[in-house]
């Protein structure tokens, strides 16, 4: 979208670090950047660096991990419905001891996916166990330790709904190390749009996000802001639908 409209794209990675996100936005502000499309890091709980860009006249569009306090265009997916469907799928397959592995509790995607998970359990009269809702960062060691802790106890879950793909990959490694058979002993579902999911062993059931369309919509909204001849005051949030791709990691053998 951007290249077709005559814009060049520069990509910065925060690597889930707040301070790096701040440094990157400050650099962009000092380099006469036309606009910014941003998703928040796992550590971000303060938003002055983003608001300062907007106040300085640099258009900003947020996607995926958004902040409701920032008044601008946003592109998200229906995280709640995706999580609800994923958890209900596990219940339909006969798994009732379902844990939820997630990221920072302050992120919008974490809150919506957790709400979908909780509501699915409540809908089917399954108790929500707080000790089976685990928040962790993206450090490989912390992910693996969190999963080992869940499955080292005598009273352990028989399924995991991982809210982020990287968490699910950590689960797969630990399950292999602990010789847990998937899906016979433990099932796994993730939020993901990785084309390699179908080639994992076993293939991973995942809530597919329309990531390409998210990028397109975000770019279109940003260019609208950049090229607008008026001061835009009415902002919109575009919500896209997810799809559950069911594969062997969550299906009991008949």
Mean pLDDT: 94
The helix content, as a percent range, equals 25-40%
Q: How would a textbook summarize the main sheet? A: 6 strands, mixed
Spans of at least 5 consecutive residues with low confidence? none
Q: Give the number of DSSP strands.
A: 10
Which key features would you list for this structure?
254 residues, alpha/beta, 6-stranded mixed sheet, 4-stranded parallel sheet, 7 helices, 37% helix, elongated
Explain the layout of strands and helices.
Elements: H1 18-30, E1 36-38, H2 48-55, E2 60-63, E3 73-77, H3 79-92, E4 98-102, H4 108-123, E5 133-135, H5 140-152, E6 159-162, H6 165-177, E7 187-191, E8 205-208, H7 211-227, E9 237-240, E10 243-245
Parallel strand pairs: 1-2, 2-3, 3-9, 4-5, 4-6, 6-7, 7-8
Antiparallel strand pairs: 8-10
Offer a concise description of the structure.
The chain is an alpha/beta fold and 254 residues long. 37% of the residues lie in helices and 16% in strands.
Textual characterization of the structure:
The protein has 254 residues and is of the alpha/beta class. Helices cover 37% and strands 16% of the residues. It has helices at 18-30, 48-55, 79-92, 108-123, 140-152, 165-177, 211-227, and strands at residues 36-38, 60-63, 73-77, 98-102, 133-135, 159-162, 187-191, 205-208, 237-240, 243-245. It has a six-stranded mixed β-sheet, with helices on both faces. A four-stranded parallel β-sheet has the order 1-2-3-9, with helices on both faces. The longest helix is centred in the C-terminal third of the chain and has 17 residues, at 211-227. It is elongated, with a radius of gyration of 20 Å. The termini are far apart. The mean pLDDT is 94.
């Amino acid at each position: 979208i951007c290249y077709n409209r005559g814009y060049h794209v520069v990509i910065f990675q925060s690597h889930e670090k707040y301070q790096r996100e701040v440094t990157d936005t400050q650099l962009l502000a000092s380099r006469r950047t036309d606009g910014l499309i941003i998703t928040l890091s796992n550590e971000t709980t303060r938003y002055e660096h983003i608001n300062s860009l907007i106040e300085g006249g640099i258009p900003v569009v947020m996607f995926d991990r958004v902040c409701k306090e920032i008044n601008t265009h946003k592109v998200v997916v229906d995280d709640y419905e995706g999580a609800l469907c994923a958890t209900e799928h596990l219940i339909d397959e006969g798994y009732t001891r379902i844990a939820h592995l997630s990221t920072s509790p302050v992120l919008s995607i974490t809150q919506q996916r957790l709400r979908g998970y909780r509501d699915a359990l409540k809908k089917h009269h399954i108790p929500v166990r707080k000790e089976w809702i685990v928040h962790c960062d993206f450090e490989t060691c912390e992910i693996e330790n969190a999963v080992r802790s869940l499955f080292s106890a005598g009273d352990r879950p028989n399924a995991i709904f991982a809210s982020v793909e990287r968490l699910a990959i950590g689960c797969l490694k630990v399950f292999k190390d602990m010789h847990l058979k998937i899906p016979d002993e433990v099932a796994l579902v993730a939020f993901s749009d990785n084309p390699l999911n179908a080639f994992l062993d076993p293939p991973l059931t995942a809530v597919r996000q329309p990531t390409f369309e998210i990028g397109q919509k975000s770019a279109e909204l940003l260019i609208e802001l950049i090229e607008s001849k008026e001061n835009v005051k009415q902002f919109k949030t575009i919500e896209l639908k997810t799809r559950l791709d069911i594969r062997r990691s969550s299906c009991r053998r008949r």
